Amino acid sequence: MSAGGFLYAGGWLSSEKLTPVRIADRFEEVHGKHAGFRRNHAKGVCVSGYFTSNGSGTSVSKASVFRPGRTPVIGRFSLSGGKPQATDANDTIRGLGLVFALSNGEQWRTALINIPVFPDNTVQGFYDRLLASKPVPGTGQPDPQKMAEFLAKHPETARAQKIIKTHPPTSGFDDSTFNSLNAFLATNETGVTVPVRWSLVPAQPARPGNTTKPADENYLFDSLIVQLSAHPLQWNLVLTVGEPDDPTDDPTVPWPESRQKITAGTLTIDSVQTEGVGNARDVNFDPLVLPDGISPSDDPLLSARSAVYSQSFTRRSSEPKQPSAVDVSKVQQ
Ligand code: HEM
Predict the structure, then answer these.
(1) In angstroms, what is the span from residue 230 Cα to ligand 1's centroid?
(2) How many other C-beta atoms are found inside a 10 Å radius of the C-beta of residue 83?
């Protein structure tokens, strides 16, 4: 299906008069225009490794990645925001984009973040919140009045923010849980389809996050690079299976803790690279590139994400490249 088809299927273009161009423009309005970089999650580092499936995921999905065996993976750890030189901060949202290269030639691309729910359930809400969050010169913080006005109109965001506050960030990328937040549909060999969300749960024990800010402006990335230079890092891929009343179109709402959880295997990351030609820098982690056995849910954010990531990718691909703020060789020296 073309990107236009996704827009139509998502229904967000016609009803809300928002386009991928306007949303990418808004990122530039809020964070500035930084040629060659992603319009969101601009600061990042590339990684590679593999996923070892234990076979348990086949109970819900026929995707070959869930059969026992190993699938090569490339990925990118990132911090949210459109400023590629931003100083690392504990409360900046951490991202992990992954491409699983299935042996049958299919790909599974997924981009996850370290918060338990997403703040918005509509594209318009996301677009309006971006502007309300724009830092004010002087304080460097959002205008409290604008944010209060936004939250008064968006109780779903206020509720989501309360949940997010109960999950303070851990100390680094290595001990973060990364969540898909959007729901998808999984279909198994017998044709049964169930809603799923997925998470990558760290094998590394969680340590509490810093309360004082380290002086090193890349402290989160540097720590990740130091660890990956010494040993691999691992996360368990956990599929959470939704039940009929669980919302699939609203990532601001958590599903009950009691839902079935399937540990489908382990992601091992064993190599780290500075963003550069041919690595994950030049990948679009489009959440709608899915293997047979996983399909999109009715969440309107999915088609919007797909279209906007494509717009961001198109812009950055045609722009001159600048070096990444995160340089693996400097940390390894
Ligand atoms: C469940 C909600 C979301 C999650 C989990 C998520 C996660 C991520 C992650 C991890 C990345 C970085 C991927 C990379 O390293 O390339 C990313 C990039 C990006 N996100 Fe999202 N995101 C979400 C919602 C949205 C929404 C609603 C929008 C706008 C409509 C958006 C716009 C972008 C853009 C423009 C990029 C850069 C894409 C590129 O140039 O490759 N995201 N997102």
Answers:
(1) 29
(2) 15
